[in-house]
Please model this.
Amino acid sequence: MTDKHHDHPHEDGHEDGPDPMVARVAALEAVLTEKGLVEADALDAILELYETRIGPRNGARVIARAWSDPDYADWLRRDATAAIADLGYTGRQGEHMRAVFNTEAMHNLVVCTLCSCYPWSVLGLPPVWYKSPPYRARAVIAPREVLAEFGVVLPEGTAIRVWDSTAEIRYLVVPVRPEGTDGLDAEALAALVTRDSMIGAGLALAL
Amino acid sequence: MNGPQDLGGQHGFGPVAPEPDEPRFHADWERRAMALTLAAGAMGTWSIDESRHARESLPPAVYLRASYYEIWIRALEALLVRHGFVTEAELAEGRALAPGAAPLRVLAALAVPAVISRGAPVDRAPGDVQPAFAPGDLVRTAVMHPAGHTRLPRYARGKTGVVEAVQGFHVFPDSNACGRGEAPQWLYSVVFEAAGIWGRDAEPGAALSIDAWESYLERP
Model:
């Protein structure tokens, strides 16, 4: 058994034959469509949205605007749901948003220990690691160790704040703006904002 | 419930394994699983709370060895059977055998963008219900071990923290998950020093917060 199989059971097929989830999900889809409970075109429309329109580039545009516009940053701090909606990002798993701002003194990290709560409207679908037991178990008790596993080593003096998303508030981390980016426009700034940096599991890219 | 979902602080799962250039889905069945879960949820028969409760009610050994989309599918099957839409026999055979419950509504493709961009807000009008706590208040979380759904993690029970913000008047999952109604309550962001939760095993300089409904909290 490889480590990959160990960490992601079922996801890349099975050691001894086809992944049983393939037939299981196909059977479920067949029953639901035959009974008229779901429409095949609606499934395609859902996938089209999450595969082409809703993803971490949305969040990166929010961050870039907050870095460029102090009034917008202030709005984002006071009423993230409205400030984010101003860019057109609303709805499912982003109904109640809160933005938390990293500083040199304080680093924020977001987790959902109880399930996989994640701000879909700005980050899209969560990565496997975010939904998996190692992260959910350890982000709360050993956040500095977890950050190191992502290659993020914070100065000893930087405090860490972990946000466990136990309700329907969804957290977006605003990473520290990299140095030397004063002349960049919003698009160039957004390119520096990684998905992980908006969870707190990474930093914005240096120029 | 003290189920397999309540993972905060557990040991033994190994290091976090971020995957470079992770694909959005790892197999086509995961794509179908995600879309089916959303489309079936849009029938409006169950809430997100009942859905979460169905996932965490999987046997611990099943939950912990399943990928997340497998957890979703197993829970979706349970919800569909519970509410009379499909039978176990139909799922086993992959075809309809008898008419089942009629859905309140069926999601149409044209409605998908609007349904997703509207979402399902859970804030409700508080009327004349005032929040019992204010930012800065010291609070103690309840000691409780309900067999049903709850969003107060085990690690955060019976702990003293500080109310940092009033987050709104929100549907109460512990009630809503099991058909006892939305019963909304004030919701608070409560922050704890890591040492107050993990004691001698806390990392220095760390703090941790949860969102806690009012009935999870008492004055210390």
User: Anything to note?
Assistant: Residues 20-34 of chain A form the longest helix (15 residues). Chain A has two domains: 4-38, 55-199. Residues 50 and 124 of chain A are 7 Å apart (CA to CA).
